[in-house]
Amino acid sequence: MPDYRRYYVAEATVFFTxxxxxxxxxxxxxxxxxCLRLALHKVMAQRPFAAIVLLPDHLHALWTLPPGDSDFSIxxxxxxxxxxxxxxxxxxxxxxxxxxxxRRKERGVxxxxxxxxxxxDERDFERHFDYVHYNPVKHGLVRRPRDWPYxxxxxxxxxxxxxxxxxxxxxxxxxxxxxxxxxx
Length: 184
Prior knowledge:
CATH class of the largest domain: Alpha Beta
Number of strands: 4
CATH architecture of the largest domain: 2-Layer Sandwich
CATH superfamily of the largest domain: Transposase IS200-like
Number of helices: 6
Helix content: 25-40%
Order of helices and strands: EHEEHHEHHH
């Protein structure tokens, strides 16, 4: 079994990728969006965090943890639990469950693990921040970041972090130094 190491650093900013079970493309469906919004709000009320982009089969998030707090795993576990219960209760469908999943009482909604990367410095933060907002273009879902409705990009345009035309040029945005394969 691979050795998964998580680096828990209080007050860190961390980049995450979570993927649906079997990469089933349901996260942007109305029911899934509603269930995810409820799960995020419920967990945020108890353990605050911020920033996300939602794609059909995965999501990326960039969170800065509060002072004295390093436990992002509990947040994701609670979000996945809240989402899965609400989603299945309201008629959402899960993927096939292997004997291993049945034995562990796991549902066929999310992949077991998630990718995390502790942000090292301001440059690393900016690259990951841009990656989150450009991801729908990278996956061919839209031609411009502003065209994707399930992203915090619009909030950051209103806050003057991005111009509305960011990422709209003829050349794709480059993310030098990021291991994009690991993040997807």
